[in-house]
Amino acid sequence: MRTFYKRALLGTLLAGGITLLGATVANAAEPPTDPGLISSVVADNGLVDSLVGDAIVEPLLGDDGAAAPVTDAVAAVVDDVTGTTAGTTVVDALVGDDSALDDVVGDGALVEGGTVGNVASNVDAVLDDVAAGDADAAVADLGTTVQDLGSDVGQTVTDAAANTDEQVINGIVGGVVTDAVDVLDGVGDGDDPLAGVDDLIQNLGDNTADATDTTGLLEDALQTTLEGGPTSTPATPVDDADGLLTGLTENEGLVDDLLGDSVLDPILGDSGALEPVTDAVGDLIDGATGTTAGTTILDGLLGADSGLNDVVGDGILVEGGLVGNLVDNADNTVDDLLDGDIDSVIDDLGTTVADLGGDLGTTVTNATENTADQVLDGLVTDALTDAGNVVEELLNGGDVLGAVSDTVQNVGDNVADASDSTGLVDDLLTDLLGDTDAVVPTDPTDPTDPTDPTDPTDPTDPTDPTNPTNPTNPGDNGTPGDDGSATVVGAAASAISAGEATQLATTGGAGAMPFLLLALSLLAAGAIARVSRRRSA
User: Where is this region: Disordered (predicted)?
Assistant: First the structure.
């Protein structure tokens, strides 16, 4: 029995030691991941960071920067003239230690991610694919580049508009209007007008500093561009007003009558005024190419199932979207202005800016996403594949005309997919003008009869535990028998050691030296156990 335990320990130690040794070698030999060409140019201590960040921006910014003597002198003059600390407050927030510029741009690394970092990484992926000769992957990565750029820009615009609403419109503009009213009221009451002006200037400085320091809109814009990516998908604001301007753009309004009902509606669709011309052009292209590409493209652009006809030529030109929301918010502003409610006018102006930013962000995000999907991944990818087929047929003396016809047909299909009522044209127009297609209600289905509940099954009796097996007697020539446990322990320990070490070899772990020492220790222990077994034998 003692000999058997020694053999189990010996196998475990040797297997674990050998596997750990191999994992150590693999971990030490794993090459580091190098940044791509463009990423390395904009990375910390790269060309751009060295020339722009380290050499120019960082030495200028901060309380002890090269610009501090000049900015401090300007701030002192403003403070003396106004009798406030507005000059110092604004200058510190613009270029001081607590400024957004110093926090994001002057922190030692110019580009740490964000829109610029994402573009650099994505362009690197495209260049790698081109260098490898993988055209399909290059087009796919180009689509990702466009989509990510649109998402980043859309989020930047959305955040900037929301911050402008809060910090510029409601903060700076609202504060100036409120303080100006207080000054006028003080003059009417015979108070010193200069006291009110001082408060106005001080508040203006404080609000400006709030927008430009590390908690303001400038910080958010710089972080999104240079450090952090988009955090959420822009949401489309809802319509919230009905007034004079809305009446001009709504159904049967002046704009809809002059542009929609009189111009666009009559020329779009299968029975529109352009149909004779488009049908003739489509037939001409079909006959010249031996395909239906001409008809397919023109139907997708101007026919009954086109995006233009679905959104613009459906009888109502503006049904919401960016234009509808902008008009609604303008109506609210006009109404409050006519009522003489200045505070509400400022609130409405802020809402207008925030909603416009949200709508622009949504439009840009959706447009770039659709461009990546339908133009790059669809049209361009298929065109590359078809061009390859044409070349192959030409080199092999095959059906070149057939391959060219397939290419033209696929181009027509992809263009139609992008321009019909399910494509990017429809989505873009919907984001801009809104579209509420009528939904046909479905007939309710008859309720199904409930099924009878099934009888519960009787629980099964638990089985009695089995008796443990007795160890077997030793075999001939002193061969140890099986005691039912030692083999399992030894095998499991060996498997665990091998599994953990294999995982290290696959993924790479900490430094190689600790695992090298552990591997050598296990091998040494195995060797000692081997010698001990021989002596005991």
Answer: 435-487
* DSSP code of residue 32: P
Cα–Cα distance for residue pair 77/82, rounded to 1 Å: 9
Question: Could you read off the pLDDT of 396-410 as tens digits, one per residue?
Answer: 988 988 999 899 998
pLDDT in tens, 374-383: 888 888 888 8
Could you say which DSSP state residue 272 is in? S
| Structure tokens belonging to residue 488 | 């399992």
Q: Tell me which DSSP letter residue 49 carries.
A: I
CA distance 137 to 129: 6
Six token digits for residue 500? 């953990």
Other CB atoms within 10 A of residue 258 CB = 11
Residue whose C-alpha is closest to residue 314's, from 229, 256, 389: 256
356 closest CA partner among 382, 381, 379, 323: 323
Cβ 481 vs Cβ 474: under 8 Å: yes
9: its two tokens: 């320990």
The angle subtended at Cα 514 by Cα 512 and Cα 519, nearest 5°, is 90
Those residues with Cβ within 8 angstroms of residue 164's Cβ, 6 or more apart along the chain or in another chain: 217, 350, 353, 354, 357
By the 8 A CB rule, do 268 and 314 touch? Answer: no
> pLDDT tens across 202-231, in order?
888 888 888 887 777 777 777 777 666 444
Q: Considering only CA atoms, give the Rg of the chain.
A: 37
Q: Are 411 and 383 in contact (CB under 8 A)?
A: yes
Coil, strand, or helix at residue 111? coil
Angle between helices 174-188 and 193-212 (to 10 degrees): 170
Task: Please state, as a whole number, how many other Cβ atoms lie within 10 Å of the Cβ of residue 447.
Answer: 6
pLDDT in tens, 267-287: 887 788 888 898 999 999 999
Task: Specify the length of the chain in residues.
Answer: 537
The 10s digit of each residue's pLDDT in 164-202 is 888 888 888 888 888 888 888 777 777 776 767 878 888
- What is d(CA 118, CA 196) in angstroms, rounded to the nearest whole number? 49
Note whether 147 and 368 are within 8 A (CB).
yes
Question: Which class for 457: exposed (0-12), middle (13-18), buried (19 or more C-beta within 10 A)?
Answer: exposed
Burial, 363: exposed, middle or buried (Cβ in 10 Å; 0-12, 13-18, 19+)?
buried
